[in-house]
């Protein structure tokens, strides 16, 4: 029997360089293929009319970009013109998630009708917000004066614009919150949504993450030496999560939105659960700098172990860890240390690092975790060829997992010291 008090995930919508929907992502994960392409425009970094990416350094030039054509079946050009790029991604991901869950979502030509949807809560995470719109607004102010600032650009330059656009178009009038907790943000949004439903404040919630890639953002990340390097501008870089030779991450834009519901209401409308939320939480590493990684991985791991115990989750029941590792030297070190500390000498379950495929920004590991629960096959961890003795962790080498994946642990340490975790179980909890 299903637990009517449980929180179910009933819909998944994802948009990225792999396209719109889960199947493109499933193929990329199976092939260990990062769908990178040269940046399509130079923006403020290059002179008008230059070929794409000509003046950009090799590592900066490559990113996982969303083809605007994949959005058109879900968002009309007229509606898209009134949105920032992240808002477009988020709205399309929300529509995909609603369709997957069998829920209504008004078209661009329809006005939301007040009803059950009005109590839906929305929780969205973003690392950098609408970068291109903010850049355009600042160019207007600095080059032409404050009087030239576009009211439209201002309204879409704030981090919570994507969540607001989802609410405006869907008619959701429940709590609406945007997280800017970097890598830990998506799991914070997921846990907040599940808590909202468990407390009975909302019958349904949309939770996810969104970000875009721009030439200026790529260049700033490169100045921090955060991007995976490549010497040849015509050869895409490779992320090497957990590998001894890792030197940085890839970037990829996109969005992921999940539909969460109280099991009782989902059952009443005949919905099927993709997964059950079993528990989640967070912790903080005070040794981290505001823009860097700390050395408190072991302490985070002990906090994770205590959190699992409070949630009544046996570590031995976890079949797979979906890690946040991306090839960042400090980030992978923290994550390996926290996983070792959480298992305290016991054998870790298989560990996958989907950001080696999707990039650092694209939609987070949320869709990869749900695909794993659906039975997806993951290829070898991109670029992993040599174990790092400091980490003491060997990620998934590719192929089937040792046992069917019924429970997945997601972990996400973040720059600045944040940390989030969550456990999902396939289908309905028993």
Number of strands: 13
Structural class: alpha/beta
Q: For the report, how would you describe the main beta sheet?
A: 11 strands, mixed
Task: Give the termini separation.
Answer: 6 Å
In percent terms, what proportion of residues is strand?
15-25%
Tally of helical runs = 14
What is the mean predicted local confidence, pLDDT?
90
Shape: globular
What are the secondary-structure elements, in order, as H or E? EEHEHEHHEHHHEHEHEHEHEHEHHEE
Q: Please mark out the parts with pLDDT under 50 across 5 or more consecutive residues, or reply none.
A: 41-53
Radius of gyration, whole Å: 21 Å
**Amount of helix:** 25-40%
Q: TL;DR of this structure?
A:
The protein is 32% helix and 17% strand. The protein is an alpha/beta fold. The model is unreliable at 41-53 (pLDDT under 50).
Spell out the key features of this protein.
globular, two-stranded antiparallel ribbon, alpha/beta, eleven-stranded mixed beta sheet
Describe this structure in words.
The chain has 430 residues and is an alpha/beta fold. It is 32% helix and 17% strand. The chain has 14 helices and 13 strands. Helix 4 crosses helix 7 and helix 11 (297-310) crosses helix 12. The longest helix is centred in the N-terminal third of the chain and has 17 residues, at 85-101. The chain is globular. The protein starts with 6 loop residues before the first strand and ends with a strand. Residues 41-53 have low confidence and may be disordered.
